[in-house]
Design a protein that fits this description.
This is Group 1 truncated hemoglobin. Helix content is 63%, strand content 0%. It has 123 residues and is mainly α. It has a single domain, classed as Globin-like (Orthogonal Bundle), CATH 1.10.490.10.
Amino acid sequence: MTEKTLYERLGGYDGITEFVNTLLPRLQKDNQLGRFWQHRGNDGVNREKQLLIDYLCANAGGALYYTGRNMKLTHEGMNISESDWDIFIGHAVDAMNVLHIPAKEQSDIAAFVSQLKSDIVEC
């Protein structure tokens, strides 16, 4: 029997969407990270949210095709710092805990996300 993909273990599209819907408001309301969403219209925020859902689904083993840019290009020029990264990780862990995502899946998510750090953090 083959092991389920992370996508399946997270509840598929709906589970990943629930995670994003839990995480994004936390990031937007954060005193330090909120600056990344200032002066953005609802349409832009909703497009970004959909791209994040698609990216996570595709990279977790779902049958979704991600049409957005790579993480380096997407975050270039945003001046994301180590401190920003650490705060983001804290919010992501909190969101996973709120949703009762099991430890194995949290570990798998952490391993994937940590690979993205060098493409996202600039300073």
